[in-house]
Design goal:
Oligomer: single chain
Largest sheet: 8 strands, mixed
Bound molecules: flavin-adenine dinucleotide
CATH topology of the largest domain: FAD/NAD(P)-binding domain
Shape: globular
Helix content: 25-40%
Length: about 575
């Protein structure tokens, strides 16, 4: 089959905040840059981010990047790399001002400065009073950022391939990654895009769990592409369950609600977070609050007829404040929970929210894999945003640090690609065999005999992940989950489509996504099964303590043989002293 081919200096897969901020650097430097996105760019999940982006601007309360760094290291349960964290927290300040100047309509204080709200895990003076570090555009910060970045890219003439689905990375005859095979969803035709550098910015994979705050498109395609290219995924066991999803549905109720003065109660009307985190209470870090909610429900103190959730109280707040600062939350709550939070509390329960792990990169977005005793950069391949793991979140991410991560590291990957392309100006040519392998992933779905449906296997898979890799994990539960996942992986071969048309065949896209999700799900399950300690979001009742002696190290999962490897945490920051591991209390 001959496949039409296009050439660019850089190919960016993903048009969320990470992809668009990288593209903007490249287009402004007059490079030919292609951005591929399976949905229209402004529908990327970044658009859904509510609460805001962290930067120690000190507009509301005293603050410094060093305190931000401390909170992030502590929040990560000491698994984050301190050089990358220092870098991100310093860069946060110019990054937010750059966004402001690019046109992001932040909410304002009376003196005209950017509005900042309190968020979980934020402190002053290395663990002192609550800080207010999260810069917000009401409760639609991601929307404001994504639209601004898209408009700036249009101005800079970035070339967009909207509604193109990336299938797989391709290599030249020497084995160097030199492009990607993509599928035009509208026509069903494949297209080969070759480029000198490639950035994966495909976002997270919350869809691997049944109850999630994530968009339907968050299926981990880029992470699975990396796995198939032989690249390991790092720290995959650390998946964040956000404490306040709408009960039974999963849609997110931002931590900003608690930052504005909301709090959680159990069926006795008790403000139970006071027992779990005496100082930070409802603004303790997310893993702590999520575990507290599950514990309350398990102890029979849950609300509702089934006793299966707790309540988030906002009705004591001024209605004008809710209307001004939390309009989106109010709307979501009315639609999905049938509750106006200005009048009655919202039923909430933890929801699968954010991937701390991902494709391992250095501080410049370059994909870095173990080689011998050290590491080696994969030439021309970059990753940024939620799909990547520059290791700034470690075992638990703080709210407001992901928008920051995608913007800082997206921008830096863009800058590094400019240099890389200068030094490597020649385009490599795809090896026919590599192209054939990628095409086979597509033609496999043309088989017409009977089999299992995508929907059936997907439902079983997502339930399995929820039941066996959730908030609390024991050896027994996880081992059983791994067995089931292996069976589901085998069953993939039996999955068939009934609709074989080409034009806008979304069933085929869902099938391709399912394959990716199962690969990513296994990486989570296997990594979790191996880590015998409790750290951050990975909570094991059978190993309740954090074990720095044995486990202060990053996990690396390889698809080949479900193999695990480990590498040390970088505890040395760039310019300041390191924060040694301490017990984490809020
Ligand atoms: C409801 C919600 C609220 C949040 N609120 C906050 C917040 O207030 N503060 C904060 O810091 N973080 C927040 N987060 C987290 C944060 O928004 C995300 O981690 C971040 O936006 C991810 O950005 P990204 O650029 O990595 O990916 P995304 O924005 O998810 O974009 C991924 C892109 O990849 C493309 N893509 C994926 N697969 C393919 C494929 N196979 N082919 C082609 N294109 C592909 C998609 O089309 C999309 O353009 C929130 C997350 C959610 C779900």
């Amino acid at each position: 089959m001959t496949v039409p081919t296009r050439h660019f200096d850089a190919l960016i897969i993903g048009a969320g905040g990470a992809g668009l901020n990288a593209a903007l650097q490249l287009a402004n430097a007059e490079l030919r840059v292609a951005v591929v996105s399976k949905v229209f760019p402004t529908r990327s999940h970044t658009v859904a981010a509510q609460g805001g982006v962290n930067a120690a601007l000190a507009n509301v309360m005293p603050d410094s990047w060093h305190w931000h760094m401390f909170d992030t290291v502590k929040g990560s349960d000491y698994l984050g790399d301190q050089d990358a964290i220092e870098f991100m927290c310093r860069e946060a300040i110019p990054t937010v001002y750059e966004l402001e100047h690019a046109g992001v309509p932040f909410s304002r204080l009376a003196d005209g400065k950017i509005y900042q709200r309190a968020f979980g895990g934020q402190s002053q003076n290395f663990g002192g009073e609550q800080a207010a570090r999260t810069c917000a555009a009401a409760d639609r910060t991601g929307h404001a950022i994504l639209h601004t970045l898209y408009q700036q890219n249009i101005r800079a003439r970035t070339h967009f391939f909207d509604e193109f689905f990336a299938l797989d990375l391709v290599r030249d005859a020497e084995g160097v990654i030199c492009g990607a095979l993509v599928l035009e969803i509208e026509s069903g035709q494949p297209l080969l895009i070759e480029a000198k550098a490639i950035l994966l910015a495909t976002g997270g994979w919350g869809q691997v769990f049944r109850t999630t705050s994530n968009a339907h498109i968050n299926t981990g395609d880029g992470a699975a592409m990396a796995l198939r290219a032989g690249i390991p995924l790092m720290d995959m066991e650390f998946f964040q369950f956000h404490p306040t999803g709408i009960a039974g549905k999963g849609m997110l109720i931002s931590e900003g609600t608690r930052g504005e003065g909301g709090y959680l109660i159990n069926k006795d009307g008790e403000r139970f977070m006071e027992r779990y985190a005496p100082r930070a209470k409802d603004l303790a870090s997310r893993d702590v609050v999520a575990r507290a909610i599950v514990t309350e429900v398990k102890a029979g103190r849950g609300c509702g007829a089934q006793g299966d959730h707790v309540l988030l109280k906002l009705d004591h707040l001024d209605e004008a404040l809710i209307a001004q600062r939390l309009p989106g939350i109010r709307e979501l709550s009315k639609i999905f929970a049938g509750v106006d939070p200005a009048v009655a509390p919202i039923p909430v329960f933890p929801t699968a929210h954010y991937a701390m792990g991902g494709i391992p990169t250095d501080r410049f977005g370059r994909v870095a894999v173990p080689a011998g005793r050290g590491e080696e950069i994969v030439a021309g391949l970059y990753a940024a945003g939620e799909c990547a793991c520059a290791s700034v979140h470690g075992a638990n991410r703080l709210g407001g640090n992901s928008l920051l991560d995608i913007l800082v590291f997206g921008r830096l990957a863009g800058k590094d690609i400019i240099e890389f392309v200068k030094e490597n100006p020649y385009q490599r040519t795809t090896d026919p065999l590599s192209l054939e392998l990628a095409l086979a992933r597509l033609t496999r779905w043309d088989r017409q005999d009977a089999g299992i449906s995508v929907a059936t296997l997907r439902a079983e898979f997502r339930k399995c992940m929820e039941d066996h890799a959730g908030v609390f994990r024991t050896e027994e539960v996880m081992a059983e989950g791994y067995q089931k996942l292996c069976e589901l992986r085998e069953q993939l071969a039996e999955v068939r489509l009934t609709d074989h048309s080409k034009v806008f065949n979304t069933a085929r896209i869902e099938a391709l996504e399912l394959v990716n999700m199962i690969d990513v799900g296994l990486s989570i399950a296997v990594s979790a099964l191996h880590r015998r300690e409790s750290r951050g979001a990975h909570s094991r009742p059978d190993y309740p303590a954090r074990d720095d002696q044995a486990w202060l190290k990053h996990s690396l999962y390889y698809r080949d043989g479900d193999r695990m490897d480990y590498k040390p945490v970088r505890t040395k920051p760039l310019t300041v002293e390191s924060f040694p591991p301490k017990e984490r209390v809020y």
